[in-house]
Predict the structure.
Amino acid sequence: MSDFSRRRFLQVLTAGAVTTAAAGALSACSGQSGSGAPEPVGDVTAGNVSSLQVGTVMSVPGAAVFVGRDGNGVYAMTTTCTHAGCDLSSAQAISTKIVCGCHGSQFDLNGDVVNGPANSPLVHYAVSLATDGAITVHGSQEVSAATRTPVA
């Protein structure tokens, strides 16, 4: 007869739950370098400025890029968390924050760190606007976080 007490049963059950939770957290970081360096991005078509409201940030489908718009214009930044390289493109936007699902880092809508463990802001990229309002993000050209492309 084995000695499998209620306490031992709960320990085994809890260990399984922790393992499952850890696996879920790790899967959110899968495919990333873990270094916090942004994924390589070339020129990316990112929609039209007419669909980007002032005060909003949205992820660009199929690219590791966010585009945003504020009172000064349009800007773009990486969706790669600077803490461990996790993908933020599906992160929850909570009021004015982008929250990383891997380790809980929080960024404001300009990519500045609000709460760690990340300690570096999101990398920003150059943006150009065509005469018809088409947005192109130039992911090979890093710019200052204050850089905006004015909307005519």
About this structure: Residues 82 and 117 are 9 Å apart (CA to CA). Residues 6-28 form the longest helix (23 residues). The helical segments are 6-28.
